[in-house]
Every structure is written in C-alpha cells, then in structure tokens.
Design goal:
Helix content is 72%, strand content 0%. It has 16 helices and no strands. The longest helix has 38 residues.
C-alpha cells in the first residue's frame, strides 16, 4: 500500500509540474502567438480585448488577409530593410568567423609573448558596457569615412571577444598532436587551420553563427549610429521609423514588419538547433 501511495503521489506531482511548465511556456509564447495572429488581422481587430480569437474562436480566422504584409512591403519598405539586414548579417558573420577563428587558433596552438595577458585583456572588453563606447566609436567611424555605409555596420561585427572565447574553448580540446603532425608533413599554420582545425570545429562555428545571427539581426544601436539614408536601414531601424510617425501610426504594418523580424531568427534556430546545442555543450568525443 505504501508503494502504491508513493507511485500515486509521484504521478500527481508530475501532472502538477507539467501543468505549471505549460503555463510558463504559454506565458513566454503568448507575445509571439499574438504577433502572429495580429499580422494577418485588420487593424481594427488588432487591439481588441480580449483578442478576437478568444471572442470568436476559429470563426475569427475568416478575417485573415495579407494586407498588413503587403502594406509593410510596398508602402513602408520592409522588403528593402529585410534585404539590408540579410546582407549585413551574412557579411558580418562571415568576417567575424574568419577573424575569430584565426585568433582562436593562435591562442590555442601558437606560442608568443604575453599570450595569456592578451587573452585576458580581450575577455576584459566583454565587461565594458557598449553604451560607454558610443562617442569614441562614432568618431572612429567618421575618421574612417564609414558613416552611412554598410561597411560601417559589417566591420565592427568582425571583432567579437565572445566569439574568440567560444572558439578558443572548443579548439583547446583538439589534441595538439594533430597540429604537430601536420607541421611535420610540411603544412603551414594557415593550411592546418583551414584544412584540419575548422572542419573539426564545425559545431562551435555553427553555435557561434546562430548566436551572432541573433545579435546582429536584432541590433538597433549600431545601425542608429551609422546609418543616415533610409534606403540602407535594417529591420529594427525601419520599425522604429514607422513607429515614429506622429499621426495615424501604421500599427498593422509595424506588427507585420515585427513578425518578419522575429520569424527569421526562429527559423534559423529551428534549422540549426542540433548544431547549436552540440556546439555549446559538446566538444570532441574521444
């Protein structure tokens, strides 16, 4: 009887935990669900309380249309902002992976003076609030002539202390004998890096790519500082411009643009979630 009582109690506890977890998950997913629902609704139904889907159930789907998305693309430049964001993200990630992977290789397999101190200095930059660097950063961009230029967005993303740290922590798990054997066969460091080390570090590269994708895609401060021409605006900046309209704010188009901005990182994560998890928790398996 005691065993049966314990089993029954454990089942009740498990049910309660599942219900609580579902409630927490719903609380996190509700804004996304509301955004998805509102993207396809007429503007007059967006801010109904309670939501239209609660009032009318599945019958409310009859009012769905693509008008909000069409307005965001054709009238408010969401498509151009989407293309700008895509270009900046792809270019920024490619340049960041190149530079961070080379730096991680150096800190993992090469010996040079002040190696440990330099690595600690790079990690220390992660503790500096980004807002304190706005003025010097802006002056440097003016000096380099990169204001109002896509390069002004791409180049700053190339150096990432977190990216260096993540890749270096993965690379130090690779036996140094791989590098020594390749050098004995006549391969230089660049050949070893691109032919041997990078293929072994694919999980870490995938994880870092996803993390940086989200960071660059959602970045608002850097485009706000650099860009002046509306034709170069990224999605976060374009949403802010739409929201700054004083009269008759286009909430329907703003929500549709926000939905596009939120959907892309989710799709990328769902596609590469296995590599992401492996890169953060894995390593080389011996």
């Amino acid at each position: 009887m005691k065993l049966q009582t314990r089993v029954a109690t454990q089942r009740i506890v498990n049910v309660i935990l599942v219900v609580l977890l579902c409630c927490v998950a719903l609380a996190f997913f509700f804004p996304l669900i509301w955004l998805l629902d509102s993207t396809f609704r007429p503007a007059i139904e967006i801010f109904n309380v309670p939501p239209q889907i609660v009032q009318r159930g599945f019958e409310s789907f009859s009012s769905y249309s693509l008008d909000n998305l069409v307005a965001a693309v054709s009238k408010y430049g969401a498509l151009l902002a989407f293309l700008n964001s895509t270009y900046v993200v792809i270019s920024g990630i490619a340049l960041m992976l190149l530079i961070c992977s080379l730096a991680a290789y150096a800190f993992s397999f090469l010996q040079f003076p002040l190696k440990r101190i330099l690595f600690m200095f790079v990690l220390g930059t992660m503790m500096v609030p980004a807002t304190t660097m706005i003025v010097p950063f802006y002056k440097i961009m003016i000096f380099l002539g990169l204001i109002d230029s896509p390069l002004g967005l791409i180049i700053p993303y190339a150096a990432s202390a977190y990216g260096l740290f993540l890749l270096r922590q993965y690379l130090i798990k690779i036996p140094i004998s791989f590098v020594e054997s390749a050098k004995m066969d006549g391969a230089n460091d660049f050949r070893i890096h691109f032919s041997i080390i990078l293929p072994l570090a694919r999980p870490a590269i995938a994880a870092l790519s996803i993390i940086q994708f989200r960071a660059i895609w959602n970045d608002f401060m850097l485009p706000l500082i650099i860009l002046k021409t509306k034709q170069l605006y990224t999605l976060p900046l374009q949403i802010q411009v739409m929201d700054s309209i004083n009269i008759a704010k286009p909430y329907d188009a703003i929500i549709a643009t926000g939905f596009i901005s939120a959907l892309v990182p989710i799709i990328v994560f769902l596609i590469f979630q296995r590599q992401f998890i492996e890169g953060l928790t894995g390593g080389l398996k011996h």
